[in-house]
Each structure stands twice: as C-alpha cells, then as structure tokens.
Amino acid sequence: MIKPFEDPPQIGEWCREKRLGNGGFGVVTLWRNKQTQQAVAIKKFHILQDRSEITDKHCERWRNEVKLMTETVQNDHIVRTVDVQPRAFIEELLRSSANGLPVLCMEYCEGGDLRRVLNRVENCSGLREQDVRDVLRSLRSAIAYLHSLKITHRDIKPENLVLKQHGDRFIYKLTDLGYAKALDKQSLNASLVGTVEYIAPDLIYCDRYNCSVDYWSMGVIGFEIVTGVRPFIPHAPITRWMMHVQQKKSADIAITEDNRENYTYHTEIFAENHISTCLRKQLERWLMLALEWNPKQRGYVPYSATVAEGTPPKSVTFAEDSRPGGSTVLKIFSLLDQILEKRILVLFSLHDCRWIDLEVTPDTSMAAVREHVYQLTGIPVDEIEFILPLEQKQPRVGSDTRPYDLYLSDLSSGKPMVYVAHRASRESIVQRDLKPRIPKSITDVFQNIKVKLKPHMLRQFIANAYYFIANEQRLYVLLLDGVRNYGLTLNDAIARRKEEIGRMNKVVYGIVGGVEYHKLTVSHTRDALNAGKRIPSASFETASHQWEEKCSRVETNVRKLAEMADKISKRYESVLKRSRDALRHALLQEYEQQDYFGLKTVEGRYEQTRARILEKITNEKSHMDMSQAVYECLKRRDVLLRDAGFLELQRQLLDVRHEMQEIEKVLEKVVELTEKYKRELARLTLEHQDEVWKMLSSVDAKGHAVTTNGTLSNGGGTPHGPCIADIDDMVPVFASAKTRGIGSSSIAGSNGTPKFLLGGPMTPLPSTVTNGSIESHHREEEGPNVDELIAANETLIMT
C-alpha cells in the first residue's frame, strides 16, 4: 500500500529506482526511463523532518527554489533542470505532491556528493591537488554567479556539492537553493543540525547579513578538502565553538584542542595534506579572507593593500549600505582566480625523497629552478640532473627548455612533472638511510603509548596514521618510478649514440683501407722504378726508406685507432644491453599495482576504529591497532629501502652511466683523430706522388737524379725525420682505456681483405712509368703498358 505523498514505483515507462537524499523539506528520488535509459533526479516537497506544521513560508520557499532553478539559474557548476516527457509523468507526480506544490526535474549527478568523497578512507587527510582545484574552481564559479543575480545561497556544504560525470572526469555542481532569498530563525534550525561549521557566525547571532555568509562557507569547505577536517574544533558544541571562533585573530584559519583541553590557534594549513607547498601557502592567504569573523571585512582587503599590489581599485559597499567609494576592495574571487591560474612546477627529488615545487612564469629560467632545488636539497647546482617522466612531451631538458613549458595541467596521476637526481652520486640514486617524516600526533602517542585519547584526538591520530602509511606507499612507488625514468633516460641517451658509433667505425675502417692502398702504392712504385734501373741506387734507397718509414708509422697509429674503435664498439654494445636489462628488473614490473605496505589491511583497521568512535565505545586501547600498523610500516619501509635488489638496481644503472661517460670521452677523441689521420693520409699520398714525379722529372739524359741538399724533397718535412706522431703520445686516454681492458679488436674486414676509402687519392700515371718519359709512351691508341697497369692494380679493387 502506498503511503500518503509517496510516489508509485512506476509511472508509464518511468521506474523509481532509489532515494538519493533528502533535506529539511525536500526529497530527491532517482527515476529512469526503461526505453531511453534517461535518468533524472526528481525533487519533491516533503513532510518536514521534525514533523512540524507546513507553513506558507515553507511553500513560498519551495516555489522560490523551483522558479530559480527553472527560469533564472544557468551555470555549468550549478545543477541544471531538464525537460522530462511525457507530460503525463509529471502530472502523476504532482498528484502525490504535498499541497500540490511543483516538482523539480534535475539532471542526475551519478557521482554522489562531496561528503561521500570526503568520507573515503584515502581522503581522511584531504583530497588530491587536482580535486582541490576542481572543487574550489566550481564553488567560485557557482557562488559568484549567484551573487551576480543578487542571490545568496546560505547553505553551502559538502552535501550540496554533487558530482556529474564528464568524460573521464567529474564536475562538481552546487545544488539545493532552498534557503536562497529570505531566511528566518525557524528555517535556520534545520540547517544547523550537524552542519554548524558551514554556517557563518553572523547567520546565528545577527538579524542582518549579506552575501559574505557564502564566503565563510567557501572557506570552511576549502580548508576541509585540503586537510580532511573542518577548521574550527568541529567536535565542540555550538556555544563553545562560537566562543573560541569569536576570539580568533584575522590571521587564524584553524583552532584545535589537544587531549588536555588546550586550544591552539593556527595560521597555517595542517602539514598532513596532499597539495603542493606553493599552493598551500597561497591558500592560507585566501582562507584568511574567507574565514574572517567580521562580516564587513570578510572577503575584502584594504584599498591601500590592493594599490600596493598593483590591482585596479574597485569600489564596493556592504549589505544594504550604498555608500560610494568604500575603503576596501572585494578580493575573495579575484584572489582565488589568481591562485588557481598560477602554474606550479612540481618536482620530486630521488636523492632525498622530497617533494619540491615552485611557481613558474614564462620568464622563469632553469637556473632559478636549480637554485631552488639546491636551497631545499643541498645538491650543488652543477650536479643537479633533471629527468623528465614519460608524461612530458619533450624527452630531455635542453639549454632552451623553459620551466613554464614543463608544467602539466593534469595532476590526476599524482606524479611529479620532473624528477631530480644527484649527478655526482656514485653509490646510489636514492640516498642511504633516509629518515621517515612522522607526523607529530603519532610521535606524541608513541612517547606515551598507554594514554587514553579523547574521541576527537583518536580521530586525528588514526587519520594521521593512515596518511603516514599511505604516503610511505606513495613515496616508495615514486622512487621506483623515478629510478625507472632514470633508466629510460639513460637508455635513450645511450641509444642515440649508436649512429655515431656506426659512423666512427665506417670512417676508421675506411682509413685503414686507405692506408693499405697507400702501402701497396708505395710498394708498387718501388718495384716499378727499381725495375727500370734509371735512378741512382743510393738516392732511390733513401727515398724508398723514407716512404716506407712514413707509411709504417701512420699504419701503426691507424691500426691502434682501429683497435680502439673496435673496443669502443664492443663496450658500447655491452653498455646498451646492460641498460636494457636494468629496465627489465623485477622491481620495475607492475610496481604501481603493488601494495607494498598492506594498505588494504590498514584501511580495515582504520574503518574499525572510526566505527568505534561513532558508536562511542572507545577506551585506552582504541589507538593500539593503528599504532601497530605504523610500527609495521616502519619495519617494512626499512626492509624495502635496504633490499639487495633495490640497491643492486641502482648500482647497475650508475655503473652503466659511468662506463658510458668513459666511452663518450674516448669516442670524442677517436672522432677527432680520425679527421686528423684522414688529413695525414691525404698529405702522405700527395707527398709521395709529388716526390715520384720530381724524381722522374729530374733524371737527366744519363740517368742521374738531381738532389737538393743531398736528399730528396719530402714536401717540407724534416729530412729523414718522422712526420707522423705516435698515437699513444697523442691520446693518453687510449692507454688508460687499454689498462682497463676494454676488449679485443680486429682491423680486417669480414673476408680478410683491407677496407678501401672510396673517393680517396689515386696513384697518378707518372708513378707507373718504368722506362723513358711520359711523352715517349703517349700514343693515340691503347698501348701494351695498359695491361700492365691493370694487372698491377687488380688486387686493389674493392668488392
């Protein structure tokens, strides 16, 4: 049997699914169309919770909300009304409506409300920064819009902020305008039940108020979403609450009570939160405006302060006061806009497991970021290394990188935008013996473990205990993620050298082939000239000795160079393989899904203790369960950080990095020497050709050679002296590399034949002449000496 004013379970194609919530005199029910699957939230006037008589004032307020929602309010962050068909469905709902009052058809926000989000265990110490920003941005938009319509909400609380699915994210929307417009003492009573801290004090003790009551509610919610608790002794009765809140200074944004009934007034947000330090400090300034006791100062700053900041002045008036040119300026919205628009670059130091953040602008330099990191970590500026995670669009930080461009707008992953490493560290990437940062409330209990905590202190203790354990889980995962990104960056840097290594080998072995070609050319020249017996024996032997000595010296150095190139290649391939092997380490596989600290069990312990607090059955041992969880976390933390696999992984990456740095030093020198020996080989070839030409040209009719100062010209070099320096003297780093045992090498090609430098110098025709002058052998047709030339050079043709 359907009760009076109760809706039937089905009306046509529409089925009633469940009740979504109810307020002082409204109830919201979910209805779904079986055919279209359209879901709507139907809000109807309902019997008052305290069963008091329905007055004309109640009916007027209800009609006012329906009118506002359907005819006036249009904002993305306020729940919108929807058109529902057929009309017969609405008419049937009106039949069961009390006093025939209209119904309100609204979009269904399937994400529940903010209260449900805050009640989740993982949010006991506040929301993540992305969610904090989303809530504040939504509140600012909705409230500023209502105020622009001269509408004051007056009942802003987490239960009235609902979540609407939008793509892969949720949008927060304000709802329940039932208390908008006029509000008397009687209607206020329903709102005061359980939500006193969201109501501005002036709504309680004053008969007149203005829109600043909504600023107070914004401030309370803002503090709660950051810390997980309301700012002013939420456990205290309203009389004691009023007394202490009234005594606070303008800079005070929170009041707490300890286990001995001592009260502390705070000017800072509690340390146990999930937002960046930079955002926290900026929100503290904003909260001072929002949580100002004096309603005429709430949300405003002195005109002089605004001018000092360079903000254009704006005259405002209070409530019904229409005085022009007031002495204060409204800043509650503009200051929040400035805060939310700022780009905060978030970094994570792998060296000391520390979060680092700073505000960045288009003019911020990487040098400024390095200095900020140095101030917090102590890592020397020139030893700071920035590692970009995969979420970044650019692979590495370059000389032209702007910190402003490293900002990532999507913070939902909870990861840093940049990792920081200590470049000079040789033992480990993560500093040894990292000390845990334990909340003070936990250390206080550990120092007096047998103390009986009052319910509000017990609630704080279990929240901080869960925060600490969950934070240790998060930090360890970040360390693994940072080490993985360190390895990826290292592997990328090594892989980018592969092409350079290939070019080096190609050039070096091309020079080896060129030397072989020059060596054979010298040998062929000697045999050809000696066969003719046209040059005096002493002069010829001296010249041949010089040619062979120069060729031998350059051959020795080039072969050493080829040996070094081969060693570099082998070491490089080894380093590349080991860097890839490190990335396949067991610790780096699916680490983000691992529960290293048994968080599921800790959540169960937290929920059990919270249930005892709600049921008021706590005792002197109620905190022991979570105390044990903290103790187990500390032991587990020590085991994980000292794990042999974790330490071995870091050493492996550092060894690979160090060896690659050594390879790069030698590679740079080898590349430099290849260019040098290419020039030397070309010079030797030209000198040899020139000397042979001069030798043939200077033979007189009697077959005597002309000498200069008793020797053949060597192209400007020292007579009979070596013109090629030894490679061991020029490249000491090779010798040191050799002592390290870089590996073995081979200078020959795969088929045992020498390499040949394509496009290199060729032996000119005069060096092949055996008898007479060139002119005597010149003919119009091909002569018999062509076959001799082909046969002599046949072995030099490269395949």
UniProtKB/TrEMBL annotation:
<dbReference type="InterPro" id="IPR011009">
    <property type="entry name" value="Kinase-like_dom_sf"/>
</dbReference>
<dbReference type="GO" id="GO:0008385">
    <property type="term" value="C:IkappaB kinase complex"/>
</dbReference>
<keyword id="KW-0067">ATP-binding</keyword>
<feature type="domain" description="Protein kinase">
    <location>
        <begin position="14"/>
        <end position="318"/>
    </location>
</feature>
<dbReference type="InterPro" id="IPR046375">
    <property type="entry name" value="IKBKB_SDD_sf"/>
</dbReference>
<dbReference type="GO" id="GO:0008384">
    <property type="term" value="F:IkappaB kinase activity"/>
</dbReference>
<keyword id="KW-0963">Cytoplasm</keyword>
<feature type="coiled-coil region">
    <location>
        <begin position="646"/>
        <end position="687"/>
    </location>
</feature>
<protein>
    <recommendedName>
        <fullName>IkappaB kinase</fullName>
        <ecNumber>2.7.11.10</ecNumber>
    </recommendedName>
</protein>
<dbReference type="GO" id="GO:0033209">
    <property type="term" value="P:tumor necrosis factor-mediated signaling pathway"/>
</dbReference>
<keyword id="KW-0418">Kinase</keyword>
<dbReference type="InterPro" id="IPR000719">
    <property type="entry name" value="Prot_kinase_dom"/>
</dbReference>
<dbReference type="InterPro" id="IPR008271">
    <property type="entry name" value="Ser/Thr_kinase_AS"/>
</dbReference>
<keyword id="KW-0808">Transferase</keyword>
<dbReference type="GO" id="GO:0045944">
    <property type="term" value="P:positive regulation of transcription by RNA polymerase II"/>
</dbReference>
<feature type="compositionally biased region" description="Polar residues">
    <location>
        <begin position="765"/>
        <end position="774"/>
    </location>
</feature>
<keyword id="KW-0175">Coiled coil</keyword>
<keyword id="KW-0597">Phosphoprotein</keyword>
<keyword id="KW-0547">Nucleotide-binding</keyword>
<dbReference type="GO" id="GO:0005524">
    <property type="term" value="F:ATP binding"/>
</dbReference>
<keyword id="KW-0539">Nucleus</keyword>
<feature type="region of interest" description="Disordered">
    <location>
        <begin position="753"/>
        <end position="784"/>
    </location>
</feature>
<dbReference type="InterPro" id="IPR051180">
    <property type="entry name" value="IKK"/>
</dbReference>
<dbReference type="GO" id="GO:0005634">
    <property type="term" value="C:nucleus"/>
</dbReference>
<dbReference type="Pfam" id="PF00069">
    <property type="entry name" value="Pkinase"/>
</dbReference>
<keyword id="KW-0723">Serine/threonine-protein kinase</keyword>
